[in-house]
Write a structure and sequence with these properties.
Blueprint lengths: L4 H9 L8 E2 L6 H11 L11 E6 L2 H21 L6 H9 L5 E8 L7 H8 L3 H13 L2 E2 L10 H8 L5 E12 L12 H4 L11
Antiparallel strand pairs: 1-5, 2-3, 3-5, 4-5
This protein binds flavin mononucleotide.
Flavin mononucleotide binds next to helix 4.
Length: 205
Amino acid sequence: MNIDVDQVDEVLSTARSVRKNLDFDRPVDRQDLLDCIDVAVQAPVGLGGENWRFLVVEDPKPKQEIAELYREILRRIFKERGMEMKPTHRALSDRLHEIPAMIFVCVDGVPADEEPASQIGFYGSILPAAWSLMLALRARNLGTTWTSLLSARQEEVARILGMPEQTLLTVMFPVAHLKGATLRRAKRVPASEVTFWNRWGEQSI
Ligand SMILES: Cc1cc2nc3c(=O)[nH]c(=O)nc-3n(C[C@H](O)[C@H](O)[C@H](O)COP(=O)(O)O)c2cc1C
């Protein structure tokens, strides 16, 4: 199979956070979500094995409870930082309970300890799957945002969703069809400025 590198790069480079231009009224097909999760589980995984679990929430009651919790955390974050909530954040949080689907990327287990190597191995075996999921959604023109703020309230999320103990939520993706959004490359510092060659600090090629 010939891979169209330009198309792949386009997906990789335009998986933007979409909070405003989302269609809150159009359902998202379950099979499309399962297809995206099938892509996600192709991500690299460490020795711990395939400990990922995905919970797709469509029912109004848990969505309402999750949305309330999300708004509470978001308000607190902006208050603590002494900042006004940005309109883009408000656009999603105000209507989060109406989102057609929330996908919770969870992991069965907890890091062995606080050592960087344990943490890197543990989260390194789940976050690539989350990113693959976001890319698969992007490739299907489904809008989403990488949200991790709910992870600050693990116990409440677990209670709302019936998650077992020793299971961690990492990222929650609110998913909807795009409504008039054009996703573009972000302004980022170019590779040449953040890449060293052969020795730390050496930037010339
Ligand atoms: C680790 C991480 C956590 C994030 N958590 C949230 C979140 O809880 N809510 C949210 O609206 N966006 C969240 N974002 C999305 C960022 O705010 C987003 O990347 C930023 O708005 C820049 O947009 P862009 O990715 O389209 O360039 C998170 C992103 C990362 C990488």
